[in-house]
Amino acid sequence: MTDLAQLIASAGYCKACATMRRVAPCHKCGADLIEPHPAWEEPAIPDVEPIRRLAREVGYAIGVHGSQERDLDLIAAPWTEEAVSAEQLAEHIARGINGRVLAPGPKPLGRWACNIAIDGWFKLIDLSVSPGGVHSADTPTKSMQTAIELHRTLIAAPEQSLQRLLDEMSSRALQAQQETSENE
Fold first, then answer.
1. Residue among 50, 46, 43, 45 nearest 121 (CA)
2. For residue 80, which of 32, 59, 87, 158 is within the disulfide window of CB 3.0 to 4.6 Å?
3. What is the pTM of this model?
């Protein structure tokens, strides 16, 4: 008996999570499990290596996270200066694996995410793209430069009062905020 056949024989299907579970109730949502049809075949998790190759072509690195039970959770990070936008990355991957991009949009902390559905019987890909390919390239650089300048100021002039440093930090933060507002 294959691992999948053993799992199906000793588990149930959680309709809420859309995946097989080993024990009832579902450990993620608490829902009762149903017995799947005897002919049920759990969709396969897509192979991540072709996705990694496609991402490298456009300047990204791909990492896998999550349980890989319900879907394939991927994190994309811009890896080169030539990294394309998050949207272009998703479209490039989808074209390369015969899929389509679904539900694209912004996420917390500046991330951008979407799902990619592959033609055939595969679980969904959940792609989350870290900032860098999402925003203009100078946004993180300005923040980093401000932090470095403040660090140098502190090291170069330890006799400065804490209040003076706090005033300088507040002034620079306000300036950066105004620049960001002007650029939007």
1. 43
2. 59
3. 0.62
